Amino acid sequence: MRIPEKIAMVTATCLIGALIPQDARSQTATIDPTAIELANGFDHIGSEVHNLEVDGRAAYFIDDGSTEGRPVVFIGGQGTSLAAFQLTEFNRSTRLTLGLRMISVERNGFGESPLDPDRGYADYAKEVLAVLDHLGVDKFAIVAISGGGAYAAHLAATTPDRVLSLHATAASSRTLPTRTEPDCSGSMDSKKEKLTAYTHKPKDWWGVPGSPVLVIPGWQTEAYADATRSFYVNGQLGDPTALAVEYHLPCSKDAVADASRITTPTYLYWGAADKIVPVAVMEQWQAALPNVVRATVYEGQGHTVQYRHWDQVLADIAGLGDHTVVCQDGQTQLVASADVGADAFLGNCAWQQAQ
Hints:
The protein is of the alpha/beta class. Helices cover 34% and strands 19% of the residues.
């Protein structure tokens, strides 16, 4: 039997109305569409990736923040792409409040950067400086995470007069004269064979089971996305060559930087429980550099200490190194370090609330 069109429409309307909770219907009815102020722009969902030709080669980079802010070169950990920077953006509002402009240049063979097995640390420093010159940046700070420390030492030594401060967070000392001698045995093919398990399964490269950062909504998902970008986005299909090349770089002829040229104020951040880059590596930084302002070891923290205390890193980069980020009276505050008690809760109150 054919149902008349008018009856069918009424029936459908009644059914839809029955599916909408009464509270929702009454709430919708009270909204005045003319009083709603809709955004005129787009909300932030990530940093735009730009590219620049440097010596006939495409250099990929991000530049996030006000051009009036303090420029900061961000260098992520071993085998990461420039998207690793996004893992720090759970403190984006703090970063922007402090006026920090973050710049990250993708490393050889990762993400969209083409792979040239003959490129080394000096080539990366040259590429970074070319990007900074293109952006009109003179003075800048450097912050490096884990394996990024090897590159940071070279960049800081290359142009010490331009570096405002250096911040090494659980960072490799593989290019410092005080380093533990690297194991240079084994062929490139053997390295590639061992690393294939990670590049073919990015979750294993960026998984951080047990880390406090897992309380940050979306952090682990974003980390997996960075690994996927590193090993796949440019058609690498999980090719481990770039990662093997990076592992081999400390064995290259000019791997050790001239640490005597790294005269900029340096801040070190370490986790007492870090088994990947232990506190002994921090001591190598202290022994190599002439101007270590502060070396902080956080009890109970492992290799993700930089994220747990990223708010403090940002404050230090902004020139507020004599203040400490603490949760006090339910509010995240910058307090003069001399006034911070031994039992103070360090960092954003969100960490305390998530415990």
